[in-house]
Amino acid sequence: AAGQELPFRSSARTRWLERVRQVDESGQPTVAVRRLESAEGKVDAFRGLGQTAVLGVRPEVGLLIGNRRGADATVVVTSAGGPLTREELDLVQGACDPLTLSRFLPTNPVKLGDRWELGQDVARAVSEYEQIKANSLRGRLAALDDTAARIELTGEIKGTVRGAEGSVLATGELIFDRVGKRVRRLRLERQETRTRGHVESALDVKSSLEITREGIEVPGELSDAALADLPLEPEPARELLILGGPGGKSRLLHDRNWHVTSSEGGRIVLRRVEGPNLVARFDVVAGPNAGAGRHQDPEQFRVDVEKALGANVGRVTGSGEVGGSAAGGFRYKVGLEGLEQENGDVPIWYYYLAAGPQGDQLIAIFTLSRASEPAFGDQDLRVIGSLEWVD
Hints:
The chain is mainly beta. It has helices spanning about 85-90, 120-125, 225, 235-240, 300-310, 375, 380-385, and strands at about 10-25, 30-45, 50-55, 65-70, 75-80, 85, 115, 130-135, 140-145, 150-160, 165-175, 180-195, 205-210, 240-245, 250-255, 260-265, 265-275, 275-285, 315-320, 330-340, 345-355, 360-370, 390.
């Protein structure tokens, strides 16, 4: 990590059994079902601090579905067992998903030494950028025999992701199994620089990626009978992510445009990014326990909110209880508008008081503006409506 941020080293290793379930009109795979066998990620902080985080995937969400969508071949991974956490998603969905590997191959006949351009879809797969601004990726048939072809990959990708500008230099090789008619291995070295964005600090990163594939007999857990009732089409509910509330006694669900930017001291902060735009901020804070079956007085909560915002408040736009999951207990919302800013925009806040049956409380704050309100929609109600208290 660049600048004043802490340098780090991270690694991840994931292994699964995969069966392709749908292909497009050209025969390229679009949907695959995967039975996760193992997944582990590790992040080490440097400078002698000895800080290490080890990540994994819960067994109950280990049956995965990969969907390749649209002309840009974006792959979205979900679990048949329910929503994933962001950490789990990062382990099972990443650069150069196997569903994209056929896109690295030439579309026309080539001979030894020939080169060809790799499209925007491959550039997205390699870089994970949302928008590609320049792409010089090329493939070259470097070796060929009766059993395999070796393809060299080189080039640079420039683009944007979550509001940050970035550049990736990529080199590597791909081995195509001519007998099995599939990509057998991909090795890729990437060197990336990225400006500070809405979610992450500036980056200066070197990374190595290796994907290996072996043909096997169809395992029982991926047989036609085992997968007969498994829906393969995308389901919005499956794409949601789990956020554990501060204190560990609650959980919320949110879509993939929310990103955690900090989590410490009983407060979790998320930012909502859509394309290049920062849409909103979401703070969730653990409140004091009010006692079983109790919560802070809503009127006092509204007064406290107005006092906290002070002279920034223009008016209260509404207040009252809101609904949601039955396991979410009491939820009370206060909406406020601020004073018009020099740029003509108006800040908006949605404050929530939530309480569980044992008196545990959460304070949730959504911060946006009148300009971003159309893009934000009812995200606050969706997130708070999903709240559940856990033992």
